[in-house]
């Protein structure tokens, strides 16, 4: 079910449980601000999710209310994951789904990183 990007944070969302260690994940990187792990249902040869450690429902919530340190730390973590994986050349794609029209399903901000093949046009028209 799609998320309302402005809803209150739900401590029982699946990524909150992953952050608490209640659900296993395949971690690729972790620091003070971010956790990166493989998507359970990959949509590309490489599909990693990067989530902030803080409780942010959506990009809207994070960009409006996170501290400068959290925003910097999280942004650097996303770049670090892609760089360390060797995806800068030939390239990769970042995607953040926000709210209902954005098709956000998990109400904890996550950045998708897709890589491993030419990813084609940005959106299917229609
Ligand atoms: P959204 O549509 O919210 O942008 O993307 C949610 C993503 O979370 C989907 O790509 C989905 O496969 C992934 N996902 C959902 N539940 C789990 C889980 O329990 N573990 C992992 N690793 N990924 C999950």
What is the topological layout?
Elements: H1 14-19, E1 27-30, E2 34-38, E3 46-52, H2 59-65, H3 68-85, E4 93-95, E5 111-115
Antiparallel strand pairs: 1-2, 2-3, 3-5, 4-5
The structure holds guanosine-5'-monophosphate.
Description:
The protein has 126 residues and is of the alpha+beta class. It has one domain: HIT family, subunit A. The protein contains three helices and five strands; from the N terminus they run αβββααββ. It has a five-stranded antiparallel sheet, with helices on one face. Strand 1 and strand 2 form a beta hairpin. It is globular, with a radius of gyration of 14 Å. The model has no long low-confidence stretch (mean pLDDT 96). Bound molecules: guanosine-5'-monophosphate. Guanosine-5'-monophosphate (5GP) binds next to strand 2. Guanosine-5'-monophosphate binds next to strand 2.
């Amino acid at each position: 079910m799609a998320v309302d990007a402005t809803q209150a944070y739900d401590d029982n969302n699946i990524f909150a449980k992953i952050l608490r260690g209640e659900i296993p994940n395949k971690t690729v990187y972790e620091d003070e601000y971010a956790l990166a792990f493989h998507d359970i249902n990959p949509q590309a040869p490489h599909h990693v999710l990067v989530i902030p450690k803080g409780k942010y429902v959506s990009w809207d919530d994070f960009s409006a209310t996170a501290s400068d340190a959290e925003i910097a730390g999280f942004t650097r973590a996303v770049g670090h994951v892609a760089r360390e994986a060797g995806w800068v050349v030939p390239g990769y794609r970042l995607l953040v789904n926000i709210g209902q029209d954005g098709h956000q399903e998990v109400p904890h901000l996550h950045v998708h990183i897709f890589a491993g093949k030419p990813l084609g046009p940005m959106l299917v028209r229609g």
